[in-house]
Each structure stands twice: as structure tokens, then as C-alpha cells.
Amino acid sequence: MHSLPLGAADSAMASTESERSAYPRVRAPVYFTRTVLRFLVRRRRIDPDLGGLRVYTDEKMKVGTRLEIEVFLQDETSVACTTEVVWVEKLPAGAAALHDVGLRILAIHPHDRERLSKVLEST
């Protein structure tokens, strides 16, 4: 499990540092892990209001990779979603993780989207 904070990101998930810094960031008390959730692939795709997540991880990821992730909330529940890696930056030595990664949310259950959105808005 990756035990580093997630942040909300704009749906455009900008490609350059200057573009990314133009979007509001929210530090939220949530954590994530990669998982195999094939049921999400068969569900109706939706355009989530959240847009995406910014995560810090030691795992090397390639742009375009699809990830099934589970996000653990402070209330000890979790939400699952399908994401795509849209940008990756190597972090400097001594940082809390090796990589800063932007994930676009491709599919999430409407109830989970609402729950995750509330957590991100409350911080």
C-alpha cells in the first residue's frame, strides 16, 4: 500500500509544471493502493467531477498506464476507481517518495465519487 496523501487535481491534468500549478490543490487525509477491480471495467463509464488525483509513490509508472486503485478514507471506508496515469515526475533525493504522479479518473461509482469529493472539499 502507498501511504502518502492524495490531492484533487483539475480534469485537464495539465502536462507542464506551470499549467499544473495553476489548478487548485487539496491535501486530503486519504491513502491508496493498486488493486484488481475488474467489475469497474464493466460498469458504465462516467465523467467524474473530481477529474483526477495527484499521488506520491515509490512505484515507477508510465504515462498511459491504467490503474485500478482503492482509496482509503479516514472513516475506515474506501472507494474504488479506474484511473489513467497522465503525467509522472521524479522527485528529488530526500523527498517523501520517488515519484509525483497525476491520475485521471476514468470510472468511479457515483456514490464513491460523491464520498471522495466530500473528503477533498472538507480539507
Description:
With 123 residues, the chain is of the alpha+beta class. The protein has one domain: Thrombin, subunit H. Helices cover 18% and strands 38% of the residues. The protein has 3 helices and 7 strands; from the N terminus they run E-H-E-E-H-E-E-E-E-H. A 7-stranded antiparallel beta sheet has the order 2-1-4-7-6-5-3. The N terminus is likely disordered.
Provide the CATH top-level class: Mainly Beta
The shape, in one word, is globular
DSSP E strands, number = 7
Relative helix content: 10-25%
Number of domains: 1
CATH architecture: Beta Barrel
* Strand order within the widest beta sheet: 2-1-4-7-6-5-3
Topology:
Layout: E1 6-9, H1 17-21, E2 26-28, E3 31-34, H2 38-42, E4 52-57, E5 66-72, E6 78-90, E7 99-108, H3 110-121
Keyword list:
single chain, 123 residues, alpha+beta, Thrombin, subunit H, 7-stranded antiparallel β-sheet, 3 helices, 7 strands, 18% helix, globular, disordered N terminus
